[in-house]
Amino acid sequence: MSIPLSRRFEEALVYANQLHAKQIRKGSGTPYVSHLLAVTSLVIEAGGDEDTAIAALLHDGPEDQGGRETLALIRERFGDRVADIVAACSDTFENPKPPWEERKRAYLAHLPHATPDTLLVSCADKLHNARAILRDYRDCGDQLWHRFNGGKQGTLWYYRELVEQFGRATVPPILLNELALVVDEIEALVES
Question: CA-based Rg of the chain, rounded to a whole angstrom?
Fold first, then answer.
């Protein structure tokens, strides 16, 4: 399915790059916008429309760059649907953030009630993150887990729970199946 991307998408792309211009991916030094582009690509390839593609570009904006104020700007510039997806993909707007496990448990608990649009963007986000974990684990082994607040056991638990929750929801199989395979591969490498 081909979706037309308008000037609105272009504006979101520029805004996402501006929001995250000084941010890099944990441990890799890669500009953070690479993650946003990858998640957006996964959303589009799984059948998302322009609003879900824009939400994918902006999904980390409020959480990482300005909280509710940034969310309000997203709502004003890109509409309620985009802002609602972005809000539902965020695990907190608080600064400082609540403890890691508390945030992750709350995020998992909200997934059964999330809209299909939110589940699409969220699953694409988690898939790209899991791919990065797998790649980085192959490169640096157990040193990888020092990057994560949940450490090895917490991170593995969280991704296994995500697979379970997405499996009970309406998530495009192309994303869910790959997420499950990547998480299985991470677990197999860690246990070997």
Answer: 16
Output the six-digit token pair for 88.
């539902």
pTM score over 0.70: yes
Going from the C-alpha of 108 to that of each of 34, 40, 92, 166, the distances in angstroms are 25, 22, 13, 9
CATH number of the domain encompassing residue 131? 1.10.3210.10
Q: Give the number of domains in the chain.
A: 1
Task: Tell me if 1 is assigned to some domain.
Answer: no
Boundaries of domain holding 99? 7-191
Positive or negative: CA dihedral 84, 85, 91, 97: negative
To which residue do tokens 């082994």 refer? 141
116 upstream amide cis, omega within 30 of 0: no
Q: Give pLDDT tens digits for 56-97.
A: 999 999 988 888 999 999 999 999 999 999 999 999 888 888
At 161-179, the pLDDT tens digits run: 999 999 999 899 999 999 9
